[in-house]
Specification:
The N terminus is likely disordered. The chain has three helices and ten strands.
């Protein structure tokens, strides 16, 4: 009888879930409410909030989207990568001349700031 009450295991802590406990169901798993936390920042994710899957674990909305290296704002949609750093398309500008850096132009990154090679001279 006791075995029937503890069927599934929590997707977070891997401990049994009892039928009396409230749970969160996500990613084909059940979770203790207190174990349903963001895998990146460890903040609790509320069932009514937006969350995403990251390697089979929950990820909050804030951590799911990268932040632009230039302006620090969340990036939703398409973006540019330079030296593994994310930028909004409109923030992909040279720190020297403030013009957009085209893919075909030589550029470098220094401290999270982009530079045309010609602006460094």
């Amino acid at each position: 009888k006791e075995r029937e009450k503890m069927s599934a295991k929590c997707g977070g802590c891997n401990k049994p879930l009892t039928h009396q406990e409230s749970r969160v169901h996500a990613f084909h798993k059940s979770w203790h409410k207190d174990c349903f936390i963001c895998t990146k920042c460890n903040e609790k994710i509320f069932a009514f909030g937006k969350f995403y899957e990251f390697e089979g674990k929950p990820c909050c909305e804030s951590c799911n989207f990268p932040k632009c290296t230039a302006c620090g704002e969340k990036i939703v949609g398409k973006y540019m990568l330079a030296h593994r750093l994310p930028f909004h398309n409109e923030c992909f500008k040279c720190a020297g001349c403030d013009r957009i850096v085209a893919d075909s132009e030589g550029h470098c990154e220094d401290g999270g700031r982009l530079w045309h090679l010609s602006c460094l001279r």
